[in-house]
Amino acid sequence: MDASNQEYIVIKAKDNGVQVIGLTRGQDTKFHHTEKLDKGEVLIVQFTDHTSAMKIRGKATVVTKYGTVDTDA
Q1: Whether the Cβ atoms of residue 43 and residue 37 lie closer than 8 Å to each other
Q2: Among 56, 58, 17, 13, which residue's Cα sits nearest to residue 36?
Q3: pTM of the complete model
Q4: Contact between 11 and 42 (Cβ < 8 Å)
């Protein structure tokens, strides 16, 4: 995958303990990476050849090229 075509998103934690979980591509979707954020921390993440989805647990703001979403958790 060409790096210039990869998708980035920004996640800002609104509480301590927000979890960001990367999920793999392929026939079997698996967890492959996790990060834990504290209130105010920002993580910039990228979809890659290995990462097809991300799961976010906790209160956070997620910014993508499609818009901004606040989690309800």
Answers
A1: yes
A2: 17
A3: 0.80
A4: yes
